[in-house]
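Section handout 9: paired folding examples.
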Amino acid sequence: METKKKILVAEDNASNFKLLDVILSKDFELLHAWNGKEAVEMFEQQKPELVLMDITMPVMNGYEATSEIRKFSTTVPIIGLTARAFSDDEQEGYDCGMTEYMTKPINIVQLRMHISKLLG
């Protein structure tokens, strides 16, 4: 049986994580971090193939966590997920190293397309 690829989901809202879990857990092994600091630590330990990064989180936000993760890996795709839809926010996401940037509510079809494209 093929091993599922790991996706690290950094999301402080339990309902948002549950939705992603329902959508993705059949095809991927999901790891859950509750804040940006936890996401950085889990990234180092678990070596996921992709990261779904919420922006507004306690302890360390998604931009800061992405910058920290980029110190360990410049190649692992990071998709920013946020309710902040302004172009400045999107640019900040790309500036800190995010590969893609999606606004909430998440379009499930679009998310799956991004993941498929990024994981080949």
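Moving on to protein 2 of 2.
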Amino acid sequence: MQKRIRASMLALGLISGLLVAVPVSASSRTYKAISSGYQFACALTTAGKAYCWGKNHLGQLGNNDESGADQDAPVAVYTGLKFTSITAGYAHVCALTKTGTAYCWGYDGTGQLGNDDYSGMEVVPVAVVTDLKFKSISAGENHTCALTGTGAAYCWGYNTDGRLGNGDAPNDQHVPVAVETALRFKSIAASSYHTCALTKAGVAYCWGANTGGQLGTGGGVLDEHDTPFPVDTDLKFASITGGTYHTCALTKASIVYCWGDDEYGQLGDGTNSDASTPVVMDISGVSGKIASIAAGSTAYSTCVVTTKGDVYCTGYGEYGVFGDGYDGDSTTLVPGATGVKVKTVVVSDYNGYGLTKAGKVYAWGDDSDGNLGNGADGENRYHPVLVQ
């Protein structure tokens, strides 16, 4: 394992020229869902109201600010809509209403908003152009995928490497198109350059780029697939998540398997060796049963949450991504988000975020664009801080 160094001096970032909206008092808000993209994050209140903070150069905060001013505290997304789920990509966000209608905002250079427009970005939520109703939605770096109530998969956006799964690479799609398969899925995870999904029986399928072996097919790293292809394993999974060039999945027995790029140790097996088929994560240092896993679509790390609410992370740990007081990578799971108990964790390039059972959001890592949402002056944080 690479030596990890305690962050005795906090790295400083500078945020200039901010037009900061006045946030509602943190004590008056409780959240039910969180998601993070590149240098920003979003959350839903228990009432379904969306708030975002951090980088805003492409309208990803959805606060109707065409100037692109970053925000170092949560600002309300400019809409009267109430949402049940929210998901963030590199610089776009999508959310679902109670009726299953999808809305997206932010960067739209490759059709990832699904609104059949070529404006480049939207600073407020716009409806995805479709009559379909979705039960879940997942934003990748520059594409988006969703599942209908029957488990049919649809994707839209960037498709150079086949990540839409419709068999029509490299053509981008500005409205939802059906993934070319008769399979029905229970969950879907759009990542930077690939997409994976689980059937109702727990069988994993992936499609898109295979640069680091993230499809798990056992093929060569350039062996991309533009339609769903089964992961090379007999294992059945309960949940699945994807990072930039890697994928991880959790079994019902709370065992984690990962595959793909392992440059920073994000597979968590104690090595830096890429894997084109699933390898078991070393969980010997974990106290308690693993309840969930997270490897954000722009992340080079993987984190898990136990049933006790403890966080453990592996992989890229610079900028304080693990929230454990250290600044460095790890090839095995180490305790993270020290000092807080969470029910959900999400990770991105340089940040981690945790949602507590009480509905409070904590953030840690880089703060160069206000990504921590704590209204502070741009200092990186190596332990969790409360989002305003």
